[in-house]
């Protein structure tokens, strides 16, 4: 395992960890709201590291990355976009697959909006959101609506109780005690004000979805009560390159609830997408 410190937008230092094969196809794992790169343990400790360059980031305000407490550090989409670009550039990725869970869907969409698609091979939207604010009501469920506001409160008992409920709502079947304890720990590292800043944005990335040309895999649990399956339908409807993998009996975290299947599907998608995005020998030969 390698540890990188990447300077993101506005000088914010991002904590990035890397596992696996330095020459493998890069997988950039981007976690969700109030989470951490630690949520991807079942990916970087599994078979993916035998074939791929597995990289995970603590988003600004989360985990071991810097966490400024000014709203502009979180409500400006260009900063999220530039954070991803900084990781791609500093770690010299060759056509990575961007894997975005939940709020990670916004981060990836911000990146595509500002930096385009030339440097990436594909996108895996995992229980991902692409609409936030007034337009989002048909696409978010009780797991989000009943817990997120209280998780943004400064009162510690209120905060802890909300995060405990939120974590239980993430999955269709209870997490193991070990997984729950670790998740509670890295969620509580996130300042409630940071959580609040993240959900202050008004976002509608449908126009960005319609512009996407790289391969897209939409991974979604049919029992998701946070980001409803309707959000996956929205992505599929507006993204012409999207294919959907539905997980029956799975909640908001397919990579945690069914990691073997998730890792297998991500590996297959990454290999295929990388081949499609590489120029042919004839194209290479005709370049000036």
From TrEMBL:
GO terms for cellular component: membrane. GO terms for molecular function: hydrolase activity. It comes from the Bacteria. InterPro entries: AB_hydrolase_1, AB_hydrolase_fold, AB_hydrolase_sf, Epox_hydrolase-like. SUPFAM superfamilies: alpha/beta-Hydrolases. Keywords: Hydrolase. Residues 26-259 form the AB hydrolase-1 domain. It holds the Pfam family Abhydrolase_1. This is Pimeloyl-ACP methyl ester carboxylesterase. It comes from Mesorhizobium muleiense.
